[in-house]
Design goal:
This protein is mainly alpha-helical. The protein has helices at residues 7-28, 30-38, 40-48, 54-67, 73-84, 86-111, 113-119, 122-132, 137-146, 152-160, 166-192, 196-215, 217-229, 231-241. The chain has one domain (4-241). The chain is 83% helix and 0% strand.
């Protein structure tokens, strides 16, 4: 009971503090970021220059990408395959994404719903809650993380205000992410090995799936709601129509 009055304050200042941290990081590492984004070989050389600490640096980059959800995660995952190959690139991405997801989950849980609503539209939060409610939260989150085109990193913040346990959420979310992580690392590894046909084929398939998920997101989410809630979705629709 003693800590409750402090929670709204944290919810209000949490997002501004996050923005300040992002800006500070960008300013401190602005020259490195510009060089890294300009050339994949520069990124590879920069990470490998750290020697045995290279994987740790890449994992840290992956954590930052998940927390700072506006950074496209696929770019970092492809870079992992380009630098370390398919299997190690996938492994390091999984470790970094897992760590970043834990940070996001606990940020949502500790800072509360006002903080999450400052990051994510309230109606969208309610949509996610409908999809993951009725005792089927694990299945709902798994399907949301599996479908391309849905912003997954920000869903970790939303999960923090759900009733799911961290261990269960991490299990279903990482399982849903796994095909995308492997596909991205495969693209990067194929590109480094100059296997352009394979890289372009996987990239094209990934882009097509992403576009389908983005264009038909509302329909897919409606279908998920009907599947997860059984007859409840149809009954609700009939009640609205009456």
């Amino acid at each position: 009971m003693v800590n409750k009055p402090r929670r709204p304050v944290l919810s209000l200042v949490g997002f501004p503090l996050l923005l300040c941290a992002i800006v500070a990081l960008c300013l401190v590492f602005r020259s490195q970021l510009a060089a890294l984004l300009a050339d994949r070989d520069v990124l590879r050389a920069w990470i490998l220059d750290f020697g045995i600490w290279g994987p740790a640096v890449f994992i840290a980059l992956q954590v930052v990408q998940v927390v700072v959800f506006v950074i496209p995660g696929e770019l970092i995952q492809i870079a992992g395959g380009y630098v370390f190959g398919l299997w190690l690139g996938s492994l390091y991405s999984i470790v970094g994404i897992l760590a970043g997801s834990v940070v996001n989950f606990y940020a949502g849980r500790l800072l509360g719903r006002p903080f999450v609503e400052s990051l994510f539209d309230k109606k969208k939060i309610e949509e996610v809650e409908r999809l993951t409610g009725s005792g089927k939260g694990a299945a709902g989150f798994f399907l949301l993380f599996l479908i391309p085109g849905i912003p997954k990193d920000i869903l970790c913040y939303v999960a923090g205000v759900s009733t799911l346990r961290l261990s269960l959420f991490m299990g279903v979310s990482m399982t849903g992410r796994l095909p995308g992580i492997l596909g991205s690392a495969l693209i990067g590894g194929a590109a480094y090995g100059k296997r352009w046909i394979l890289a372009l084929a996987v990239l094209g398939a990934a882009a097509a799936l992403f576009a389908i998920g983005l264009i038909f997101r509302e329909r897919v989410q409606g279908l998920l709601a009907r599947v997860l809630h059984g007859r409840g979705g149809g009954d609700e629709g009939r009640r609205r129509g009456s």
